[in-house]
Amino acid sequence: MAGCSRGGTPNLKLLWLNQEPGIQGRRLDALLGCFDLSSSREELQAVENPFKALCCLLIYLFVQVDTLCLEDLHAFIAQALCLQGKSTVQLVDLQPDYIDPRAVQLGSLLVRGLTTLVLVNSACGFPWRMSDFMPWNVFDGKLFHQKYLQAEKGYTVEALVEQNRSRLTKFHALKSVVCKACVKENRRIISRQLWRSPQPGRWGRQGSGSHRTSSGHSRAGQGQHWRDQGPGNRQYEPDHWRRYSSSSGWSN
Q: Domain coordinates of the chain in residue numbers?
């Protein structure tokens, strides 16, 4: 278990069986340490349920995966907020204009990430409520697909949250948490349009064949299986959208 920031790395007996005051804080430190998010502890604690887990995962993914862009972040957050006001019938009746393979892969990546968070939250003694990690509280595949396509077409944030002021306020709050945490790791989230220009998405950005650790060093070809199979594994993509070099065996 990496990076438990206060008091070293606790053992499972402490995390699972200890009932002393303050143990929940140790459990949370352990969970955040596993994802190198200890420096964003206060910001994540301030996020309302059920969006803590979503922000935790988005920060981790956007720091690790260089090919995720601002439009992706907008789509993830907008669909999570709009989901709260959708009935089952509305979700069933959703029909995306067309199917984008990258949107499907992004959705799969998020769900696999939430599954990993469930396991880590359990291993750390449940510092956060398990219900906050359930995909149906923060993710719907068709709704995400709709928001992804809209973001790609250049829809405004107001349009993405369906002209709802309350959602708009929450959108900016959640986006701020993710972006500020990424800046701490030297990761600037920019529009996909800028990827097609000479401007980098990261200050001093490394080559396309690496992904980052919290210390800023590259570690090509490593990482969890659920993350390595992220979006972008398509032959026709430009080189700057590839996650790994051809020698690593994966692309993203």
A: 32-195
Torsion, CA 131, CA 134, CA 140, CA 144, rounded to 10: 100
**Residue 212: strand, helix, or coil:** strand
Contact 113, 225 (CB under 8 A): no
Query: How many Å apart are CA 200 and CA 195, to the nearest integer?
Result: 7
* CA-wise closest residue to 130 among 76, 49, 58: 49
DSSP string covering 17-57: H--STTHHHHHHHHHHHHTT-GGGHHHHHHSPTTSHHHHHH
Helix (H), strand (E), coil (C) string for 146-186 = HHHHHHHCCCCHHHHCCCCHHHHHHHHHHHHHHHHHHHHCC
Residues 6+ apart with CB under 8 A from 185: 36, 63, 212, 214, 216
Q: Which residue has the tokens 């790395």?
A: 9
Please tell me whether residue 176 adopts helix, strand or coil conformation: helix
**Segment 139-177, tens digit of pLDDT:** 999 999 999 999 999 999 999 999 999 999 999 999 999
Report how far residue 40's alpha carbon sits from residue 193's, in angstroms, rounded to the nearest whole number: 28
Rounded to an integer, what distance in angstroms lies between the CA atom of residue 185 and that of residue 188? 9
Q: How many other β-carbons are positioned within 10 Å of the β-carbon of residue 8?
A: 7
Model confidence over 24-35: pLDDT tens digits? 888 888 889 888
Phi, psi of 218, deg, nearest 5: -85, 160
